[in-house]
Write a structure and sequence with these properties.
10 strands, single chain, 3-stranded parallel sheet
């Protein structure tokens, strides 16, 4: 949401830690930072004043935590009935786990994702990024947009209860649907393989890995030709997908014996234009310097007032008319305190100075 031209205020408790970590450089750009202690009545009053004129408030405290500071939804709704108040927690505002703190990896484990992630005969593993956190943020953003549309019709704000656990269950997608419909257990972990299509997985090359997708008999035939093994197309052990699935281990071993004979780049060149799905398995630096990534303008360099030049991943959606962008670097803690209190709330320099002396803001 911060890529579109919306003013976002990030209110954080004053600490000695800066706000410019690797993770915050992605999520906090285009935001203004206010360092404020809402344990103080004066701090609560400031947040009340901000909420009274805001469209959206997002918080991620345990349920009922903010009530003692008069920052809960009923209190702020009374001040601003049109406010959209999004609460993002680990397990939601209700239910037996609602009082638990939410951590991405714990929710990945508890809600099924780790069980289906990892090598076929290996242990469950977490996804390489905090995917449950990310999908929950996307669900929250979509829900906020829907609430804004509803408010345009009704004039009313509402409370959005967004839980990592719910979002993780929702993103189990077709695997959850299959289990619900069949009543049977899932088929477990498959690594990079597909449970019902062969060959469809990554294979070792001379210097790395390549993902090959023989998703049907025609595509499998193309792969056989490119591997220099056209006879595999008519081999009764491999001629249809059903028998390829039955002979998965043997066929995949034969394919990998061939893919190991060339480098990844050589296979990419050989498969170019074949019409068969394929891809190199790239590390992150290779991804960020990938010709297509750069052509799509997915890496931007900005100037940070403290850190100097900084490269960031750009917003991924391209609009035909609007121009979302990285307009400002991720802020340091309290970088915009004076600006927010002065320009938005109309406080004088003297009032702001007094609040700083009292430790209410920094």
């Amino acid at each position: 949401m911060s890529e579109v031209k919306v003013q976002k205020v990030l209110a954080r408790v004053p600490t000695s830690s800066p706000l410019t970590s690797e993770s915050s450089s992605k999520v906090n750009r285009n935001k203004k930072s206010l360092a404020l202690s809402f344990a103080s009545p004066s701090g609560q009053h400031i947040l009340h004043d901000l909420a009274a004129t805001s469209d959206i408030l997002v918080e991620n405290y345990l349920p009922n935590t903010l009530a003692k500071y008069s920052l809960d939804y009923p209190t702020l709704h009374a001040l601003n009935p049109s406010l959209i108040y999004a609460s993002i927690t680990g397990y939601g505002q209700t239910g037996p786990y609602s009082s638990r703190a939410g951590y991405d990896v714990m929710v990945e484990a508890e809600m099924g994702l780790m069980h289906i992630t990892g090598p076929r005969d290996g242990p469950p593993v977490k996804v390489g990024v905090a995917v449950t956190d990310l999908t929950t943020g996307l669900y929250a953003s979509n829900s906020i947009m829907a609430a804004l549309l509803a408010r345009a019709k009704t004039g009313k704000g509402q409370h959005l209860d967004v839980a990592l656990s719910d979002c993780q269950v929702a993103t189990l997608s077709n695997i959850a649907s299959s289990c619900l419909i069949s009543g049977e257990p899932d088929s477990g972990r498959w690594g990079t393989s597909h449970p019902s299509i062969v060959p469809y997985r990554s294979f070792k090359t001379r210097d790395g890995d390549i993902l090959l997708g023989g998703g049907n008999d025609r595509l499998y035939g193309i792969l056989c030709d490119k591997l220099g093994k056209p006879e595999w197309k008519t081999d009764e052990r491999f001629s249809t997908n059903s028998v390829r699935v039955a002979n998965r281990v043997h066929l995949e071993a034969l394919i990998e014996a061939e893919t190991r004979t060339r480098t990844t780049k050589e296979w990419l060149d050989l498969l170019e234009g074949s019409g068969m799905p394929y891809a190199a398995v790239n590390d992150i630096q290779t991804t960020l310097s990938h010709e297509h990534v750069l052509a799509r303008d997915m890496v931007k360099e900005i100037e940070h007032p403290t850190c100097g030049p900084m490269k960031l991943v750009n917003t991924p959606v391209k609009y035909s008319h609007s121009e979302p962008s990285i307009r400002s670097a991720p802020p340091t803690l309290g970088q915009h305190t004076d600006e927010i209190l002065g320009d938005i709330l109309g406080m004088s320099h003297g009032e702001i100075g007094q609040l700083k002396e009292e430790g209410v803001v920094a």
